[in-house]
Amino acid sequence: MPAPIISACPVRTRFGVLSIRPFIRFFSHTPVHHLRSTELTPDYLSSLRSNPDRIWTDIHTSASKFGPGRRWGQDPTHTGLTRLTLTDHDKAARDWFVETTKSLHCDVKVDAIGNTFAIRPGLNNDVPATFVGSHLDSQPLGGRFDGVLGVCAGIEMLRVLNDNHIETEGPVGVVNWTNEEGARFPVSMMGSGVWAGAQDLQSIYKLKEVNAGTNGQRRTVKEELERIGYLGNIPASPIEGVRMAGHFELHIEQGPKLDSEKKSVGVVEGVQSYQWYEIRVWGQASHAGATEFKYRADALLFASGIVVKAREMAEKAGVLATVGILRAEPGSVNTTPDSVYMTLDIRHRDNEMVATFAADFQGWLKQAAGREGGITFEMSKTFESRATKFDEVAIACVRDSAGAVTGKHDVPSMTSGAGHDSVNTSKHCPTAMVFVPCRKGVSHHPEEWCEKEHCAVGTDVIVQSVLRFDQWRHKEGHFGGSLDSNG
Amino acid sequence: MPAPIISACPVRTRFGVLSIRPFIRFFSHTPVHHLRSTELTPDYLSSLRSNPDRIWTDIHTSASKFGPGRRWGQDPTHTGLTRLTLTDHDKAARDWFVETTKSLHCDVKVDAIGNTFAIRPGLNNDVPATFVGSHLDSQPLGGRFDGVLGVCAGIEMLRVLNDNHIETEGPVGVVNWTNEEGARFPVSMMGSGVWAGAQDLQSIYKLKEVNAGTNGQRRTVKEELERIGYLGNIPASPIEGVRMAGHFELHIEQGPKLDSEKKSVGVVEGVQSYQWYEIRVWGQASHAGATEFKYRADALLFASGIVVKAREMAEKAGVLATVGILRAEPGSVNTTPDSVYMTLDIRHRDNEMVATFAADFQGWLKQAAGREGGITFEMSKTFESRATKFDEVAIACVRDSAGAVTGKHDVPSMTSGAGHDSVNTSKHCPTAMVFVPCRKGVSHHPEEWCEKEHCAVGTDVIVQSVLRFDQWRHKEGHFGGSLDSNG
Question: Suppose B450 and one of A336, A417, B145, B243 were both cysteines; which one would form an S-S bond, judging by CB atoms 3.0 to 4.6 Å apart?
Fold first, then answer.
């Protein structure tokens, strides 16, 4: 059965679209007149708005039902989100996503890495869909907007199109990418990475969770996909699997720029380069009361020096460097630790700056360890995401939409500090992102917060961007995939 | 039934003891002639030796059967020991201790905190026993000698007395103290501390393990005592429970002094002062890619500065300071940690030096946190053990015995860097300790190692110390407890 809003033989008119709406409303019992996206006037398109209450309800429903996190305030909405990928909470959120998009007349497809695509048919369904996408998984102590807002914006787009009886030329859809965070299974943007070919499916299947479960076992991605029922039967591929005409993503900024400059929205033109490293330090456990300093080889003391030095060197070099994980073993009050596991995250807009810093830091580390008796180390790269520049057409769709929604001509252009699934989609189709402010730039934290009006503004920009892109693709005859926008 | 080696009417002789031994051996079918400790000649006493093979077997049997730890070499004995207190491994070691000492004709008593006392009757059993004691629990990644050697020396003493048919004036015994390490339940010297009144039994019962078990629950001391069947029915008290005439403890040095100076044994005259602190640091989680340094409040960066500064200040002050545990949350590669839990162990021979350093460090911490935006901290004392001076008589027994066993007059006097159960017993009865070298001073580590000959020498000193003390108490009429040797 075709989705009910798409009539087999759509009624079209050459009249100005705005003029027909009172007519439809007045004769409410007459058949619904569908609007074709390519026939929407610029004014009508610019006037399209989402429903802020619906978005707000979706976000808070998601947060309270599927992985409620740490409480930080009195309001029912004042909790974080703890929804590590492929857990029961993640499954519940995925089920909600599937049910909701199906009820909005979408076909839902799950690929081999659990990416879930909800597709609303267009006039021509032989061409790939234009997607709005982001992720429903969270950090261990995350907030309720990171990722979730982008998926909710996609769902709201479906409702806006349905409410306004808009038919798109090609299909449009919403995608929930698997394990964007890389928090439980340590590869970030994992699902989109597999889809895009940046990650090898079989290797990712074997990837183990970073912390052992209650049974002491570290489970794999594949085991958990199977367990929660999201090991899909179609390939994770932009060619053999779900093809994509374009990808638009709404996300909180996760930094303080928009909030401090009182801007409601930003046009994201690219994503900075970053590399992740694991550093292991080995020393010698010894008794804290009986071992003079000169006889010690304290792995934690050395590792602490690494943390301090990384910041110092990064400030000088003008890059960002962060130690997010540090674990010291054996972990006893009166024993000097003999081993430390730690991570290092390095970022800059320029690939070379990241690579140079990593090499310089490794050089310092080698010298420093050489000066210490009994200290050895290993530093190895675990992940890399090169600098990404988004597609000009997709950026233009976002910029035009942001101007139309805000009525302002000075919508800031931005480079994302964080990686997003859009980095991966940009390798295969026109991609761009929309940022909205989050309070004080706080993210990856229960208190992460985005104002209701900003959620709505961002969603409005997304809805209009997709429609402008649909108009463009029809006009230009762009029907999909394999657009290399990154050189 | 009385223990079989103690005849109801012991055969005594005024003959020189050494002269009677060939006679006993020759007429092996004649009744056994028992030797009274107070009638042993100095030469005979000085010639008494333990059996190195038996001690060696006990130590390695214990290590391979009850909590084998991390392997570090090819030999079957080249593994560490992982026997956290009140675990199944600890229960198995305790059961072995009980069976072994019972088979050596001891009465075994378990007190309310699981301390286990094996008592070999003497001629007068109305007086308290002189104990050899230490502990069978280990660090998470500990070695096979720390504590275990001291208990095995006590067991070997029983065998030496039995083999030589020696009757002591008062009873003698061996005690296995509960949770000396403080690694699983974070109070060190816990069992002896409760016995001595330094710790409150009811508070200790409620103490929770530092890491949650496989079911996610953190179990209490009392739950675990009950579970393994070592919640005894006699009070943990030197007055209402098992009284003690004296306490001798053999231990590896856990520092490099004896090993580097090629000494086989040291006389321990006291234990340095130490305090344990918990430090909690709170900052703000933020995205590692999207948050410039000026907007960050990175709890791990601040905590790392604490580790570095503690060492720096301690070196200047001439005290020992060690951060043994550091845990950073939430623990994600691309998120700045928002909280850190860490410990600080401070030691010096002088109580005032420890207290002054702690105050100075807290002062620095307050200033440092004040300089950082968004960083707060708490530093609180969790444990204190004041400097201990052992009893002159007990020290003299050890010194005389060490001289007799080694044939040397320059046996070094030492102050223990580590705390031991002897700190607690010294508050109630004459106490002294014997140190033997461990390779390179390494302890609290799988590779901790004590040579077989040193295990034997230390045990010889312990055996003779107990007998010399038994002679002294009989001569001086010292029959137990409440001796305040520490002022």
Answer: B145
Summarised one tens digit per residue, pLDDT across range B342-356 is: 999 999 999 999 999
What is residue B286's predicted lDDT score, i.e. its pLDDT? 86
Q: Based on the domain organization, do B342 and B456 belong to the same domain?
A: no
How many A×B Cβ pairs under 8 Å? Answer: 255
User: Is B198 in the same domain as B111?
Assistant: yes
CA proximity to A404, closest of A338, A465, A313: A465
The three-point CA angle B126-B131-B133 to 5° equals: 150
| Shortest alpha-carbon distance between residue A370 and chain B (Å) | 18
Contact A292 B443 (CB under 8 A): no
* Cβ atoms < 10 Å from Cβ of A316: 10
CATH value at residue B466: 3.40.630.10
Instruction: Report chain B residues whose CB lies below 8 A from the CB of A298.
Output: 311, 322
Contact list in B for residue A343 (CB cut-off 8 A) is: 333
Q: Residue B485's pLDDT is what?
A: 36
List CB contacts (< 8 A) between B435 and chain A. Answer: none
Distance, C-alpha A146 to centroid of its chain = 7
Same domain, A225 and A112: yes
Same domain, A308 and A346: yes
Domain presence at residue A340: yes
Say if the Cβ atoms of B289 and A345 lie within 8 Å. yes
Distances (CA, A) of B363 to A94, B356, B369, B379: 51, 11, 10, 11
Which chain A residues are Cβ-neighbours of B141 within 8 angstroms?
A: 285, 329-330, 338
Distance CA A355, CA A348 (A): 10
Q: Is the pLDDT of residue B340 over 90?
A: yes
Domain final residue, candidates B368, B385, B402: B385
Residue A276 burial (CB count, 10 A): 25
Using the 3D structure, point to which of A365, A385, A405 is the last residue of a domain. A385
CATH (domain of B344):
3.30.70.360
Contact A255 B292 (CB under 8 A): yes
Asked if B250 and B260 touch (Cβ cutoff 8 Å), the reply is no
Chain A CB contacts of B320 below 8 Å: 288-289, 291-293
Q: CB distance A300–B307 less than 8 Å?
A: yes
Query: Is the residue at A69 inside a domain?
Result: yes
Confidence of residue B303 (pLDDT cuts 50, 70, 90): very high
Domain count of the fold of chain B:
2
Q: How far is CA A202 from CA A112, A197, A340, in A?
A: 10, 12, 29
pLDDT band per the 50, 70, 90 thresholds, residue A12: very low
Domain for residue B71, yes or no?
yes
Of residues B295, B330, B417, nearest to A441 (C-beta): B295
- E strands within A330-417? 339-348, 376-385, 388-389, 413-416
Q: Specify whether B332 is located in the same domain as B423.
A: no
CA distance A190 to chain B (A): 14
Residue B261 in any domain: the answer is yes
**What residue of A is the nearest CA neighbor of B333?**
A324
Q: Do B246 and B107 lie in a common domain?
A: yes
Regarding whether B458 and B328 lie in a shared domain, the answer is no
ipTM over 0.90: no
Domain that holds residue B128: 35-272+389-476
CB A331 to CB B314 under 8 A?
no
Contact assignment for B287 to A418 by CB distance below 8 Å: yes
Determine the straight-line distance between the first and last CA of chain A, rounded to whole angstroms: 42
A224 shares a domain with A116 = yes
Contacts of A444 in chain B (CB under 8 A): 285-287, 330, 332, 334-335
